[in-house]
């Protein structure tokens, strides 16, 4: 039995662990027509060993969501790094970055996600030094190419101790593999609260638009969520030749319009069980959305710790943060945890078709989506424009009053 078996219970998350564990190199990872990473099996090379299916989410009937009644044993905190300059470089409150630094110093090989301007994609890579983990900073809101990072894990799990950072689907796969080879206890797994990942066609088209605007120059850095307008807003920023050469205004935010439309996310994201279980991770980090930090502009992390290993690790970095006690109930209020999406199948098909078409633009896909939305969505878009043009301090004041 391999991952193409008809008994699959659900869709592929694009985690790529199946390809990494295959000793026969029978599985290759490529983008499918809709822009999602998929494994392709070469039947001539497959020995039917079954290992790929053993690490795969599609066949696991035993995944249970962690209900809020089970939150005993999960320690939850708010955390904001004490360094203002570091907060500008990270997406939330900087916990993932501090964990990567601490784990590197403790001798772990850290696997995390960087953006590669040569391949125009996010990638899971291995870091052995503090400097190498700097590139993990900042969420890249696209599916990463994970094969090489996971292949390194598979090849070296017996000799090195690993810390893996990723989305819940990556961490589930890493947990399954490390448990199979009896190395789970030696490793630390850190995942993220997760909304889902959009088709790579969204990023490819968006990136091409930015390249045109900056004269096809090399990107020094891509900030998928720049804090230029504070922590709670979603603006893409790109550094070229050491200066900020592009910051998306509301008229250029097609990337996030499509991301939050929920219509062009990977199939598996719609009813993903992994973002709603804490069973495979040591620590989950995310944004501390909700009332408590509504007016914060620098960024606050939500940290949920499930294991003794995670507790010890967080204790060793806690001194770098302003922290507060919280609960799963509080941090998931504005999260996709426990939720499912129901995209309109016809609209999804039309939007993905538009993204695939070289003659269509991102604006065409966004217009398709907006044409089906009501007054509330129009009002929200108008507010975004107002927010963009008003001075930052004034919008903060207005938000506080509202
Ligand atoms: C696709 C995606 C969806 C997300 N959805 C939510 C959400 O709904 N709610 C929420 O609270 N938080 C979400 N997050 C997490 C959030 O954006 C921050 O990554 C998290 O709070 C960590 O920020 P930080 O300040 O602690 O550290 P940072 O220094 O900003 O660390 C970022 C970490 O994310 C990892 N990473 C970056 N890009 C990816 C990627 N594409 N895939 C896997 N790992 C990656 C890096 O390796 C690093 O460890 C999402 C992240 C991604 C990538
Ligand atoms: S879910 Fe992961 S392991 Fe399963 S087929 Fe997809 S990429 Fe492979
Ligand atoms: S069954 Fe074994 S050989 Fe075949 S694709 Fe899966 S891991 Fe590779
Ligand atoms: S929603 Fe689930 S399948 Fe989709 S990216 Fe997040 S963890 Fe992976």
Written account of the structure:
- With 402 residues, the chain is of the alpha+beta class.
- It has 2 domains: 68-197 and 265-331, Aspartate Aminotransferase, domain 2; 200-263 and 341-401, no CATH class.
- The protein is built from 16 helices and 13 strands.
- It has helices spanning 17-21, 51-54, 84-87, 95-105, 130-133, 147-156, 168-180, 200-213, 254-261, 267-270, 308-317, 328-331, 345-356, 362-370, 375-389, 392-401, and strands spanning 27-31, 37-41, 75-81, 109-116, 121-127, 162-166, 188-192, 221-226, 235-240, 243-247, 283-287, 301-305, 321-326.
- The protein has an 8-stranded mixed sheet with strand order 5-4-6-7-11-12-3-13, with helices on both faces.
- Strand 9 and strand 10 (243-247) form a beta hairpin.
- Helix 13 runs antiparallel to helix 14.
- The longest helix is centred in the C-terminal third of the chain and has 15 residues, at 375-389.
- It is globular, with a radius of gyration of 21 Å.
- It starts with 16 loop residues before the first helix and ends with a helix.
- The chain binds flavin-adenine dinucleotide and iron/sulfur cluster (SF4) (3 copies).
- Flavin-adenine dinucleotide (FAD) binds next to helix 4, strand 4, strand 6 and strand 11.
- Residues 90-97, 112-113, 122, 136-142, 144, 165-167, 192-195, 197, 285-287, 301, 335-336 line the site of flavin-adenine dinucleotide (FAD).
